[in-house]
User: Fold this.
Amino acid sequence: MTVIERATLIGKRVPKMDAPEKASGKTRYIHDIDVSGQLWGKILRSARVHARIRRIDTSRAKALPGVHVVLTAADVPDQRPIGVNKDHPALKGDKVRCVRDEIAAVAADTEAIAQAALALIEVEYEDLPVIADPEAALAPGAPVINEKHADNVAMRFDYAHGDVAQGEAESDVVVEDSFKLHYVTHCCMGVSGVIAEFDASGNLLLHSNTQVPFLHKREFAEILGIDPGRIRIVQPPIGGGFGSKLDIYPFEIIAVYLARAARRPVKLVYTREEEFLASPTRQPVILRLRSGCRKDGSLTFRSVETLHDNGAYTSWGATTPFVMMQTFSSLYRVPHCKYHTTVAYTNNPYAGSFRGYGNLQATFAVESHMDKLAEAVGMDPLAFRLRNAQDPGEVTGQGMTFKSCGFKDCLRSAAERSGFLARHAEYRAAQGAGGRVKRGIGIASMLHVGGGACGTILKLDDFAHVTLMTGASEIGQGSETVLAQLVCEELGLPLSAVTVVNNDTDITPWDVGVHASRTTFIAGNSAIGAARKAKAKILAAAAKKTGVPEGELDLVGGFVVRAASGEAIVELAKLLRGLHFSDKAELVMTTHYYEPPSVHQDKGFKGDVSAAYAWATQVVEVEVDLDTGIVKMTKVTGAHDVGRVINRLGIEGQIEGGVVMGQGYALTENLVIEDGRVKNPSFRDYKLVTAPEIPEMDLAFIETMDGEGPQGAKGVGEAPAICIAAATANAICNATGVRIYELPFTPEKVYRALKGVAPKVAWRTRAAA
Amino acid sequence: MPDAGALERYAAPRALAEALELLRDGDATIVAGGTDLMPQSHSGKARFGSLLLNIRRIAELGGIALEGDTVRIGALTSISALLASPLVRERLSILAQAADQFASEQVRNAATIGGNVCNASPAGDTLVPLIVLDAAVELAAKAGGGIETRTLPLQDFLTGPGRTQRRPHELMTAVRVPLPPAGFVARFYKHGTRPALDISTISLGIGGVRRGDRLERVRVAFGAVAPTPIRARAAEALIEGRALDAAAIEAAAEAAHDEVRPISDVRASDWYRQELVRNMTRRVLAHVAFG
Assistant:
């Protein structure tokens, strides 16, 4: 008797399936793809921040040899506005509202010719007053930026639970501060790009870096006025997304218009400078938070007002209040909460979605106040947080139900591993002592949601090789590998037996897109569902063939085995071949569509929006140089409630990367925008964290085994970036006694704060007005 | 997209004489490592002359040699080669300190000391240590049938951002550094959040010959606080030959703070640069004096 040993891949350190290609430089990104007959597209952007376009003359550009098409808004009368508010035409005709604005586009034989043609386009502007500040945009009589929104308000959000007046009445301590969160941008190593081509029948094929191919398919169909079935989107490997590729942007539509006009494929890929100028940013926010607690440390209320700078057009950044209000209402137990956001049009660049989706901004304010309140009632920061942290089974004022909840374990684990309490006391005591370099330690936690639906098709061939067709895109986060692991676990196969197809809308089933920390959870459950159906089919066939009841069979190591003993009965590949050639020829091919058991929010933004909630606590240690203001991040200790670890190597990489992204947000990254213009569109002056600056990391995983999660897992993609800035603020305060309310903590800003010459963030809120 | 402008010709001679002959017309853009020229041409800041002259193949422009009591560093010497040279590391250690904070490995392999000097950036990383070392610039030109050379103190050679006293038909051939006397100590500091790969917000170099608790022949130099790297003469005067106690250090730091006139830009404000000058002069002086 041959006994097959059971082996599991779950929780193991599995190298990413795409790693060999990427490490050897063989991955073909959009930059590396050229299609036969292709032209190069280039976009002419506005030279002004806010102006009327008096005249555009493209005649010299059109006359340049090698130029095939030059388009302006006048050439595309069928334009439909895009964006969350449908306020954004791809090509601007009468007016420019921001330096990103696309005025004309060229398709030419080469990139150099297209570039040269742009320089030949003459544009005459008539300047309009520039509104570069959202407060100024809301002032009475302010110039109107978008004619459909005469008050310059793009959106408003209002949320409340409980009664903050009662909460305030019950408070022994109340604190209130304004916070200011800055512009940063994704800095994907793979810049934005697309190749658009129409076939002879007018069907559109897009090679696109998008994170939401199925949503885009529909949008392009609307834009072109054609059946969505005639649009196919193929995604080459994507060199980073982080939310930047979640919306549809003018450059994609312009490439389609150029291809339509030229009757040739058109490739349009950004330069790095263009990526800085014209791809979205993280949402900048001005925020006022008022919080209270009782003497015993229990929180009583939070009252929040924010002003979001919408920029000139409305993209996903305007909708970050959806996630921000969840943090204000439900990160720690808050009996009474009120939240308001005004999103104001300005002439600045617009923000999009970015890993964390407003949560970094909200957590920064909340966790600063957690430290201030703890101090005011004389509790240590950990005890104060544990006093207010939720337990499994709790339902928040916003209606979130925490089925699994490792919040307190995250707090205790991160604090214990980092020696938080002893260090916090020691550094605090040393604030007044000598020495020009001060050490500090800070703690912060986060709560994050995830959701959406996903389909899977699973095909087993006659060699028991599995093709997993999933709607979930791979953007470097490692989803291919995790999904393959989950399928292997069900079918008892090695990872090498799985091929993942996830990049072609003509093949893969529908998915809402890669965002919201959702792929492992949602696509994972979908893949498991398809694999279980396949397994049932296989075992039924095996039972029929062998006479052993289905219930006694299992799949292990490529064999159908007796579940109890592991005794091999038949090789899986052989069984499958037998099925193909039997009288009733049959293929093992299954589908599964997974929609999580969450509910949509009601009109008051309440409801259990996520099937599972992820938690994390991070402790940051810093050294602050009092002579320069330089803050050095020396160590990050993270404890993450991830439900369960599926790929240990992958999750470590994802968390390490997220920590570094959070570090950049906290310390060095700053897209400087003055009067609507981007001042530092290059890696020379936009400072990403480089390898030697990365702190030591100690990561712990809290495995709460979520009942709904695939193998118990929850989403983790966004979590690690979220509380680094908040914990850093607390660490700087622990080191120096100075609290800073504005990001990033660049040397000059910190130095000014240490010297007491930094202006406090001032903002007259609607409530105060 | 580089703007080739008036560019008509490219030449890559192997001999200095040939290069100087080509320079006689004067309308040339010189390229060695290209680490400044390439980004400048991409951003449209560099305007090409009619001739692009690649000097990388000219062996005479390489090498680091001790000539009597002068170290001659050929203009084509890469930053990596500076770091690898025992002569530089041991005798001109402040230059090695700056080279160790210069850009990335890849850039250090390509960038040359001649390029860093002739680019004349106020923030040029090798300029401050070279000024502390009293370095001079050697220039060559074709005159009549032969080659004529002249030598200028680096301080005089630099006249403004991107501007030097090099004449259009001249080629910088070397940096000449007098060997510092026994007891010479010097420190370089560059302000930034990264260990390297950063444009200086300010940089400073302090050197002198230590005699007991005194510093003699003091040099205090700053980068990125004026149109060219400068010496802080008031600060120097306050410590020259005096016992370096806390009061002297403080006085020199305040003097340095008062005599620099930095600008505000996307990297830092003028106020902050002045604060850094004071604080870091204090710290580096204490290092030089007591460290």
About this structure: The mean pLDDT of chain B is 94. The longest strand of chain B covers residues 214-223.
